[in-house]
Structures are given as C-alpha cells and as structure tokens.
Amino acid sequence: MPDRSTVLAALRAQHIETPSWAYGNSGTRFKVFAQEGIPRNAYEKIDDAATVHRFTGVAPTVALHIPWDKVDDYADLAAHAGNQGIGIGAINPNVFQEDDYRLGSVCNPDPAVRRKALDHLLECVDIMDATGSRDLSLWFADGTNYPGQDSIAERQARLGEALRAVYDRLTGEQRMLVEYKLFEPAFYTMDVPDWGTSYAHCVDLGERAKVLVDTGHHAPGTNIEFIVAFLLHRAKLGGFHFNSRFYADDDLMVGAADPFQLFRIMAEIVLGGGLDKASGVAFMLDQCHNIEPKIPALIRSVLNVQEATAKALLVDANALRQAQSEGDVLGANAVLMDAFNTDVRPMLAELREDMGIDPDPIAAYRRSGHFDKIRAERADGAAAGWGA
C-alpha cells in the first residue's frame, strides 16, 4: 500500500488554481443572476481568491481573464496578490466577445480582424511579463455554423499562423496551453474541436505548447482519462480546466456530476507522474457559479479535487501492475475500486490541521462572517461580471 506520509506530502504540495471570473456575476447565455458581495474589480477578485486559499491552503494562484480583469498597472495587481498571499496564474485572452469576432478571431476570413485578435494575444503575453504568469491559456470560439461558410483547411492554416506568432513571443518559463471544445458557439465546425487538433498544433509549435483539457468539453461517453494518459505519455498535457457536465459545457462544480470520473482522471495523473512538479501539469478550475454563492462553491471544488487526488494516491500501484500483468481483470479493477471507496476525509482533515487551517473549510468560512463583511463593503458600485 502507498506510504501514508508520501500521500500526505503529495496532497500538501498540490496546487489548485481558481479563476477570477468565477468570483464575479456569471451564468448562462439565458440569464446571469446577480448576487450580493460580488467583487467590483480585479483587485477584489484577488481578495476573494486569497480567501479561498486561506481556508484551503492549496489554492495559491488565481487566473486572470483579459479584458474582464483589465487594470492600468498589472505589476501593481501582481504586487497586491502577493500582499494577499497568492500569485497570478494563467492569463486568459478574450477573443470571442466583440462584434468583430462574429466570424471568428484568429481564423476569421478578414485579415484585419485576425490582426486585431493576434494583437490581443500578444498583449496578454505582455501581461504575463508584468505579472510573472507562467501560462497563456488559449480558447477560441472560432468555427462555422454552415457547410461551405468558410474553408476548413484555410482556417486551420490561419490558426497555425497565429499560434506560431504568439509562441515565438514567449520567453523564459512561459508556456502556451491550447484548449479545445467540441461545440458552441459554432455548431457545424469548431476550429479546435478536440484534443487531437490541439495536440497536432502543439507538436508543430514545440515543447512549450501543451494541451489544456477542460473536463466539460467532450461528447457524452468520451473517455477523458484515456486522453489524459496519452498526453502525459507524450509530455503534452499542460493542465486542466476542472468542472462538471451533465449535458454539455455546464461549468458546474467539479466532481458534482461524476466524482468517479474525476477519480479516474486523477488516477491516471498519479500513475503517469502528473503530480510531480517536473511534469508542469496545472490544476485549474473553470466554473460558472450561476446560483450558488461564489467563495463557498470554489472552496467546495478545491476540496473535491483534493478528495479525488487523495483517493488516486491510495491506489496500490504495485498490486495494480501485478494484476494487469497476470491478466487478472477483476483483481485490477478491485484495486481501483478499493481506493475510490476509501473515505479520505479524515486524512484530509488531519492534513489541514497540520497545515494550521481548519479541518472543515466550508464550516470555517460560514463561521468567519466573511460574507457579511464583503456584502456590506461592496454594497455600492457596479459588480464585476462577464458581460453575458
């Protein structure tokens, strides 16, 4: 069985990044439900992210979305984050919310629109320079709605040209993470519809281009853990946008729909060395807290990833490999199920106490009175949101 101290050390070292946009008012294309106590700017979003880290101990970075989190001085924003005990994580460009992008951004048939989109991507690399961010997280809404609308092949060429220009701008430890999505907002073709398309472009670009797996961006029944194992084996897994889906890109709290799937993904991560710092795999949340309160929902998602990781770390790898080598189908499956069915909450509570935080972060947050404080402090002014 795995050594308990090794498991605890791995859990202590795991970092789970929260997204700035999940702290603002967010929802679906049908409705955004406003809440009280919502941040009014990027600085207050960072304050909320720091709160999640304070209660969980394992969420030390926050991803930014530009221009949703646009400020005059990004170095000052990074300094503010540092003063709050966290850092700036991935920078996420927005090339999907302007009228010019009706027919796409970097794949648009109009070269002027493509130039505008590329300039924004390069601006976001500048922001990485100013904030110390390692990752540029790219998702493109580009695609077509009708057969014949545009050349599929030419759009791929335009995409590759833009990615190359951005890749060549990266310096030092900076990386490019290329996300994919099966459908929406385009319904005939998406220009990066699957992991294979992302993988192919990343291979063309070089070692600092990696695939980003959003767990909500797949067709029903897709074996996401296979994708994870393949990309890890090829050193092309850059990270995750964790969320849950029942039907499509639901962006619900991770582990809410299928905690067993989350465990299976994390099992492949652990078995494939993806928790090792050298792997560089980024564990990020990408969620839309439409009806649930923001900070507690993000705390819950962090805890869900921790629980799945803890169970994955309890998989007896030696027993699993022996059963696999012997063709023992039931025995191999039982090794995984034994780990999944283990109640890891007492172990995680012990870990948190050892880290000097409350063993029950949700209960601790509720007792803290923090929500009443921010509700009063943020009563005036316009709440932040994603403009849906």
What does this structure look like?
By secondary structure, the protein is an alpha/beta fold. The protein is 45% helix and 12% strand. It has 14 helices and ten strands. The chain has helices at residues 4-13, 42-56, 74-83, 111-131, 152-169, 195-205, 224-233, 259-271, 294-313, 317-325, 329-340, 345-354, 361-368, 370-377; strands at 16-19, 61-66, 87-93, 135-138, 143-144, 175-179, 189-190, 209-214, 237-242, 282-285. An eight-stranded parallel β-sheet has the order 3-2-1-10-9-8-6-4. A two-stranded antiparallel sheet has the order 5-7. Strand 9, helix 8 and strand 10 form a beta-alpha-beta unit. The longest helix is centred in the N-terminal third of the chain and has 21 residues, at 111-131. The protein is globular, with a radius of gyration of 21 Å. The model has no long low-confidence stretch (mean pLDDT 96).
